[in-house]
Amino acid sequence: MILPMKQSINGILISAPSSNSGKTTVVCAILEALKMMGRRPVSFKCGPDYIDPMFHQKVTDIPSSNLDMYLLNDNTVRYLYASNSLKGDISVTEGVMGYYDGLSMTSTGASSYALSKILGCPAVLVVNVKGMAMSVPALIRGFTDFRPDSTIRGVIFNGASDNTYGPLKEAILSEFKGRVRPLGFLPMMKDCSVGSRHLGLITAREIDDIREKDMKLGRRALETIDMEGLTELASQSRDIEYEDIFPEEFPEKIRIALARDKAFCFYYEDGLDLLRKMGAEIVEFSPMEDHALPHDIHGLYLGGGYPELHLDELCSNETMLASVREAVQAGLPTIAECGGFMYIQEAIGERKVCGILPGSSGDTGKLVRFGYARMKALKDNLLLKAGQEIPVHEFHHWDSTEIGSDFTLTKPNGLSRTECVGWDTLYAGYPHIHLCSDPSAAKNFYRACVTYKCRK
Fold it and tell me: Among the four residues 127, 130, 196, 337, which has the most C-beta atoms within 10 Å?
């Protein structure tokens, strides 16, 4: 019998009334300020987003974990939160969208609110106060009273100034009598702004002066955010209970090549850690810059990212294209998600790539196949047995002329379709998989890598 474990964690969740309120900027400022105070912050992201965790990691030097309540069950969420929190002394979780926004227009499932309750940590709202005065406490009142157990205990004003913060602070103190604490503000800092594209922010890898921006944010946070009040609030988190997850450690060790550069950078770090705990060595390489796959590998993981933005480097690297093509066609067990799927098809736009699978990808000019789904295997394949299901997430503007037909994807609203490619040695498709959502998929991948190693 597996006995539940209990752990005390100093934790805080930073959310907002809506997207584009400045959550990521405020979180990075707080993480940097905590480091300047001598603390060791660990970061998390509510939901499936890959980009925000990259910004967190640039500050903390610790991979940021995704806590997604659709892709992961409640115990796995608590386990990942508890185990990763041991890497530091205070845990900061960034919310997703608006605080109560969940799986549908009428559901709070998988929202920041739902995650705050699972983690047992207080929530702080980041409110962009541009163009508001007494509407600010009215907005906060609505959010705190919308649910009797909202867990909202503090507020940070984004875009405020020294002149406007004082009156706003007094209004919050008067209206809430200590139930919601004003925790300072972050002024507009144009020199620390980050550009965006259709999938969200420009990635942290693409910003040359990212550390300089973070340092500026941290110094300003020390001046204008009540960091002592924030850390005191974090200490009020309740103990978290969870059952440990014991991944099977294989006696046979393997090496898995992982594409990691500006073109391929979307990975759930806890999924990679799961493979490591099973006995895999993760060997990173760059399809843009390296001439061939790493030597002596037994598996390949081509994640998502922005290959369409780096076609000159990818397509001119003919020796890498040939290396990947020959290895996959020879039976190297391979996961190719989203950008990786595009890379192993015949073309991205008008540019030829690996040519392992038929089809070409093109920009639709809009968001297509967005959101969560359940993916069911129609036949045995690298990751799943026929009939087995796993939760997935999609978010892309590009689409392919050949999307595959080996899985059925069913959306939460009941709509379904077939797509993706599943061979004994290959999973390829636009949907992203978090390997911790069903460790059996990771085990199947690992076993295929062992088989390939023994066959070699």
Answer: 127
